[in-house]
Specification:
alpha+beta, Jelly Rolls, five-stranded antiparallel sheet, four-stranded antiparallel sheet, 10 helices, globular
């Protein structure tokens, strides 16, 4: 990971009291969620099973992880929605839960203190579309340079606790594949070809494809398309550009191909994803 990997943007932050109303299914967002429970308990349904969340721990849900929530009592929790452009979660599997320490509590409270008025006004996604707010957060940044710098530092410190216990998704021992992943990220808006990535890694395309598939368990073309479609999901959720404009910005010149690829990887069409995106961006 290079230093830019740790460039985090705080989208929303608040302390919220729920009265058995934290019940949502199939949540999948282009930003990560960090939770700290103050009082009570609730359930989070993750791909690996049901987790009880309770005081004394930090909880992390990376972007693009489908999950759900269940609550049948009153509980209070802090929530932080975090955007990272540089694929912080791409190469590692992070633990959902880590034990909190006294410093974590101080950091959480400090994070709220220097970022006032960042709460979502309503927790029911059917009645509150916050995509414009998210887009504004990303475009405007923080008006306070000092607070912005401190916020990024605190987020890095809190997330480093998860990184400490993270496991590589793939045991990438081949430095040329790491270079390839970096190249794909830096040129994600371009029409990336296997040949040019292979040349960047000083390999011929066939040899490069074999090494990439061995290290990543998928083909380089699948990986490129996956990263582009995830970027399209983010753009669909966070700005008002048309589907066609987003596809062209990501160098998809054939709309039929883009729509088919998006539907195959996400399970719905780009238009349907945009319509339902507001249902997944709640507390």
């Amino acid at each position: 990971m290079n230093p830019d990997t740790f460039n985090f943007t705080l989208l929303n932050a608040a302390c919220k009291i729920h009265h058995a109303d934290w019940n949502w299914k199939n949540v999948n967002s282009p930003f990560a969620r960090l939770y700290v429970v103050k009082n009570g308990v609730a359930k989070v349904i993750m791909p690996d099973g049901i987790h009880i969340i309770q005081p004394g721990y930090l909880y992390l849900i990376p972007s693009f992880i489908t999950h759900g929530y269940e609550s049948d009592s009153t509980f209070t929790h802090y929530y932080f929605h975090i955007y990272n452009e540089y694929d912080f979660f791409d190469l590692h599997s992070f633990p959902f839960e880590i034990e909190a320490c006294e410093l974590d509590s101080l950091l959480v409270n400090r994070l709220l203190a220097i970022n006032p008025n960042m709460e979502l006004k309503r927790s029911d996604p059917r009645s509150y579309d916050n995509t414009q707010l998210l887009a504004k957060r990303l475009s405007d940044g923080s008006p306070n340079l000092v607070a912005s710098m401190e916020t990024k530092g605190i987020l890095s410190q809190l997330l480093s606790r998860f990184l400490y216990k993270a496991q590589p998704k793939n045991n990438i021992s081949e430095i040329r594949i790491i270079k390839a992943l970096q190249y794909i990220h830096e040129h994600i808006y371009e029409d990336i070809t296997i040949n040019e990535v292979a040349r960047y890694c000083n390999l011929n395309s066939d040899h490069f494809t074999r090494i990439f598939k061995k290290e990543m368990a998928i083909t380089p073309l699948f990986y490129i398309n996956k990263r582009k479609i995830e970027k399209a999901q983010l753009m669909l959720a966070l700005n008002r550009k048309t589907v066609k404009e987003i596809a062209y910005e990501l160098s998809f010149n054939n709309m039929t191909h883009f729509n088919k690829l998006f539907n195959k990887m996400v399970g719905v069409s780009p238009k349907t994803y945009r319509k339902t995106a507001l249902y997944t961006q709640h507390l």
